[in-house]
Design brief:
This protein has 669 residues and is mainly β. Helices cover 4% and strands 58% of the residues. It contains five helices and 36 strands. It has a 22-stranded antiparallel barrel. A five-stranded mixed β-sheet has the order 3-8-9-6-7. 44% of the residues are buried.
Length: 669
């Protein structure tokens, strides 16, 4: 076996087991996947094949082929990633390696999104507009990210503005059949539209884009008041300006306005109340300004400024009228920057900083709920350094250190180290070994310490806890992988995450006993120690230009060390598989996406579980004209759905969904 040449950056079981045998990560099917450039792990452009920090990618082609309308739908087939329904809302959050969404950092072009509920980002609120790719790094092994990234990072990379004048438009509509709230099985119960227009040249570019999504909700019994799937309207508009003057400089400004209105309806509630509901309005205003600079001699720099305002207003209602009007407003401001320089022939060094400030206000019926304060705020100051050392032609070592100072919790240092060793056999087969160890650290955010998450209409309340302590972790990652001429590839990664002072919700027995309406009161608390460990495996095969198969299997174990119980809502087994092919009809292609997960504990201390389930999606694309594509799909073909009468059943909310649509592209390139 020969060592490969160094891949340096530019200067400067289950129902699906039979399918798994045919091809045992799902988005790994797209043409050129191994050559996709990624930046999230090291902030230097590397290919998926060469990066020393394991990075998984959802490509623009995957998003197009599967007709994803928002970030949730784009991520659903990524191996080992869990999408969890946010209880009491029409949204979803991301869990990675058995670590829940409060510890997963969601970014757009490297800058964070503020949490839309509790402590997590609702990824269904982010429309799939102008996305180049989505990068996912699991575990706390990258020195690039600090607090809130213990479980990993999801980074949405947007496209630069194309040269020429271009316009795109797409629309689709579909039905849940007998579960349409209207009672008419052929009503368009869910529909959406997206449009963008851009103009640019080599020096400048401007793009306007927007989307609108509507759902009537999901209702197996339309004649009753209750509606298990919430109605919602989501609208957003984005403006982007690119300016690329001479001298290796680039400037980008973007502005986003997002608005969501949703409505929930419930019956047979705690305390005997019936036919109650909740209306919620969310608005996000976000603006960013960034710059990239290089001198052409190995010195590069990047900076970015972010300000985001988020409002979340709710009100409850019954036949007696409206009550519990709650207004929550938060803000996030951040300034980030780093410089990178080549030192000799073997080192590339980066030094960066992140400065942030968060605020939170919350009122119920005009009275502050934040322990008598009108507003809480916190400031964070983080400094990091990373050295990429090409020890040998086939051995790369990436070391980093991140220091964080929080206005409420003081200073913490988090070291990281990653290494990669490459081999090749001289006959087309290349392989590698990759290892990473990183220290994670997370301070409790303002919502966990002060927010009141009131879903008494669902039977529970979660109160913030100002006595919370920061969490810390050590993440270990060990993987092997390889490929044969980039046509067949595999990647196997073992992980172990050791977490101290994990923040979880626990029942406040005294507060619950003091109530007379059977509503359970929870609060955030620190668990002494928790662990997650397991194995992630992916395999893909580009059979031909028109045929590809791929799949992934993830095994996850978890433990609350104090009790010995499993952590709740973590399935032990997950399996994803995909097939992409063409028919004999010119321009017609199809895709299958299949998912399975095993049963999971709802309450490990009581032994209650949610059952295992499988889901299969079928997608069709027909290129009628170069400018016009028709598409259709069936999501959840087998109509797998939870039993809404069983509170421990967390199978999919939505049953089978049939839809069709079209997309158009016009203009010069």
């Amino acid at each position: 076996m020969e060592f490969s040449a160094c891949r340096r950056p530019h200067a400067g079981l289950y129902p699906l087991s039979i399918l798994a045998v045919i091809a045992v990560s799902t988005p790994l099917h797209a043409a050129g996947y191994l050559d996709e450039l990624v930046v999230t792990g090291t902030r230097s452009e590397r290919t998926v094949l060469d990066t020393p920090v394991r990075t998984e990618v959802v490509t623009a082609k995957e998003i197009e082929n599967t007709h994803a309308r928002n970030l949730k739908e784009a991520l659903i087939n990524l191996p080992g990633l869990l999408l969890r329904e946010i209880h009491g809302k029409p949204g979803y959050e991301v869990w990675l390696q058995g670590i829940d969404a409060d510890r997963v950092l969601v970014l757009v072009d490297g800058m964070p999104l503020s949490a839309t509920t509790g402590s997590a980002v609702d990824v269904s609120q982010l429309a799939v507009l102008d996305i180049e790719r989505i990068e996912v790094v699991k575990g706390a092994v990258s020195a690039q990210y600090g607090s809130a990234a213990m479980g990993g990072v999801v980074n949405v990379i947007t496209r630069r503005v194309d040269s020429g004048i271009k316009g795109t438009f797409s629309a689709d509509a579909g039905t849940y059949g007998d579960q349409n709230p209207s009672g008419d099985k052929w009503d368009p119960a869910r529909y959406s539209g997206r449009a963008a227009v851009s103009a640019g040249n080599e020096r400048w570019g401007v793009r306007l884009s927007g989307s609108s999504q509507h759902s009537d909700g999901i209702d197996p019994e339309p004649e009753t008041w209750a509606r298990p799937g919430d109605e919602y309207d989501r609208n957003d508009a984005t403006v982007r300006l690119d300016w690329r003057p001479e001298g290796g400089n680039k400037f980008t400004w973007s502005g986003l306005v997002f608005d969501e209105s949703s409505g929930s309806r419930f019956s047979t509630l705690p305390g005997g109340t019936i036919n109650q509901g909740k209306d919620e309005d969310v608005r996000r205003l976000r603006t960013t300004l960034s710059g990239d600079h290089g001198n052409g001699a190995g010195l590069r720099g990047h900076w970015a400024l972010l300000h985001e305002q988020l409002s979340d207003d709710t009100s409850k209602f019954s036949v007696a009228g409206t009550f519990d009007q709650r207004e929550a407003d938060s803000s996030l401001s951040q300034a980030s920057g780093h410089v990178e320089a080549a030192i000799g022939d073997a080192h590339s060094v980066q030094v960066g900083t992140d400065l942030s400030r968060e605020t939170l206000e919350q009122y119920k019926d005009g009275i502050s709920e934040l322990a008598g304060n009108e507003e809480f705020s916190r400031e964070g100051y983080e400094l990091w350094v990373q050295d990429t050392w090409f020890v040998l032609d086939n051995l790369e070592l990436v070391t980093g250190l991140r220091g964080q100072r929080d206005s409420d919790f003081g200073t913490h240092l988090a070291p990281k180290i990653n290494a990669r060793l490459d081999f090749e056999d001289g006959e087309g087969f290349d392989s590698f070994v990759r290892v990473g160890v990183g220290s994670g650290y997370r301070v409790p955010n303002l919502k966990e310490r002060h927010y009141r998450f009131d879903h008494s209409q669902l039977g529970y309340i979660v109160n913030g806890n100002p006595e919370l302590e920061p969490e810390s972790s050590v993440s270990y990652q060990l993987g092997i992988g390889g490929h044969f001429e980039k046509k067949v590839w595999f990647d196997v990664n073992g992980f172990f995450n050791d977490i101290d002072d994990l923040i979880q919700t626990s029942l406040d027995r005294d507060a619950t006993a003091a109530r007379s309406d059977n509503v359970q009161v929870y609060h955030y608390s620190n668990i002494d120690k928790a662990r997650t460990w397991g194995l992630e495996s992916t395999v893909g095969w580009d059979i031909s230009e028109d045929w590809r198969v791929s799949a992934g299997y993830t095994w996850t174990e978890t433990e609350d060390v104090a009790t010995g119980d499993d952590l709740n809502r973590r399935p032990r087994h997950q399996l994803q598989a995909s097939i992409d092919g063409h028919t004999g009809l010119r321009g017609l292609s199809w895709s299958v996406r299949a998912r399975h997960q095993s049963s999971e504990y709802v309450d490990a201390s009581l032994g209650s579980k949610s059952p295992a389930y499988s889901a299969i999606d079928l997608k069709f694309n027909y290129r009628l004209l170069p400018e016009l594509k028709l598409f259709a799909g069936i999501d959840n073909l087998a109509d797998t759905q939870r039993d809404f009468s069983d509170p421990d059943d967390f199978q999919p909310v939505a049953g089978r969904f049939l839809y069709t649509g079209f997309s158009m592209t016009l203009g010069s390139q």
